[in-house]
Amino acid sequence: MEQYIGTKxxxxxxxxxxxxxxxxxxxxxxxDEYENEDGYLVVYEDGYRSWSPKKTFNDAYRAISxxxxxxxxxxxxxxSRISRAGWNGKGMFVVYMPPLYLPPFNTADTARKVNxxxxxxxxxxxxxxxxxxxxxxTAKKQWQPGWLASQADMLAEDWEVVV
Length: 163
Hints:
about 160 residues, alpha+beta, three-stranded antiparallel beta sheet, 5 helices, 11 strands, elongated
């Protein structure tokens, strides 16, 4: 059997099992089979709501402020803007730009295609096959494609999702 690891973003609030059952309008298990315990009411991206015991939840989730770099990368790959609390510049964040394929500049089609600025460098007959990369929006409000993390960034645990 293979092992798996998952990453997903959820909304949660501390709530004991009995209160969660009242909130959800259903019993998780018959009440005579267990005692009340602390945990979290969890709401998933698709709106599904459930309850998780405190230890199980804490083993699986971490707040979106105070993340490791690995969790921040996963959040960025899912479309979130990420930033470090320790960065000096206001408004700075990093995004993941997914792979992009565009047909050549000289294509007669009116759909999206390589622009003249890019065609100047790769040729009018060459399609654009861009691999995914990280880009930073700087404190000067400029895009910096190809952003790379420093050692300090990679080891920091102050990454957060920018909302």
